[in-house]
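Q: Got one fold?
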Amino acid sequence: MNLDLTNKNALVCGSSAGIGKASALELAEMGATVTLIARDENKLKKVLPELPIKQGQTHNYIVADFNEPADLKVKLLQATLQKNYHILINNTGGPKGGSIFAAEVSEFENAFKMHLICNQILVQSVAPGMKDEGYGRIINIISTSVKQPIDGLGVSNTIRGAVASWSKTLANELGPFGITVNNVLPGFTATDRLTDIVSNASKKMNKTEVEAEAFMKSLVPARRFAQPEEIANAVAFLSSPAASYISGINVPVDGGRTKSL
């Protein structure tokens, strides 16, 4: 099985922590030269030296805030003038929790901008280079909510579903150029966002956070939360030459929690 990413360039969004960071580390370990992208430069500076360096890799980073799509577009133009990217990992922190009925219109607008609009800008920036190279892997880290909406995440459920449909359409259009497009759907994963979800759940259930966490784990057949590295393993495989005929799919990595096939 060919998992070698030597001489491949990867752009990994949200890579200052959590699943994004774990994905960047794994891709670098497989030989890719990685460009980190996030809004907090101090965090990026800490992650950069953690990336494995072998076979002449020269990793770097881009500081960009996905609340500012126009600025993101300019910075991506500068980056793609310097190199072609073979791998794009779209990964952005989810919208805050809450019921869909109570959500402000602005919450939907901001989430749409951060997730779908910025994803579109990213793809339009890197796809020409992927076409030139005859190799492209676009992986969107979204949510199991595209298969089964999650209570209390109204805006997120809506926007994640939009990204999933966008991704499937994109896979059909880019397939003839050797570019695959897939979605990874993490379940409960030990990140800062999960800490917030557990806290909110405890308040809603009128239980301690320990009790809320235990209940959430009971919903997972594996009876535990995932580690970011376990999500990154799926991302890395889909980025590899071995996944060349896998495109347009949703891959739950959730310990079996999603009830649908």
Observations:
- The helical segments are 18-29, 41-47, 69-82, 105-133, 154-174, 192-205, 209-218, 228-239.
- The first helix runs from residue 18 to 29.
- The chain has eight helices and seven strands.
- The CA atoms of residues 202 and 212 lie 5 Å apart.
